[in-house]
Give the backbone structure.
Amino acid sequence: MYHPGKVVAILSSSDKGIVSADTSVQATLHMWDENVLTMLVAPKIAKSIREGDIVLCDYRPEGGMSVPVPRNVVVKILRGRQSEKMWQEYKEVHEKRNKRENKEKQAQQSYIG
């Protein structure tokens, strides 16, 4: 399973103000469902990622764990029309879900007077 996110910040050991124990790159992401997460960026694409990019994150479970833990790795960078189309589609699904949940909550409220 993969989830799209929008890059808010890039954290690299080569940046001033960052002291790192390794050379990995992380990205802080605003996810389609309004979560904000910081994930490892796959080394092959680490030099290409930019703020504002739409990315796909690997949420498949890690192998060998007793409970499913997502990998949380940025594996693809999407740009151009395709990226905006995907981002918009996921945001629309999220907005519809929120509206439906709000209606259900309102329906469950009882009048006590």
Helices lie at 81-108. Residues 2-107 form a domain with the OB fold (Dihydrolipoamide Acetyltransferase, E2P) fold (CATH 2.40.50).
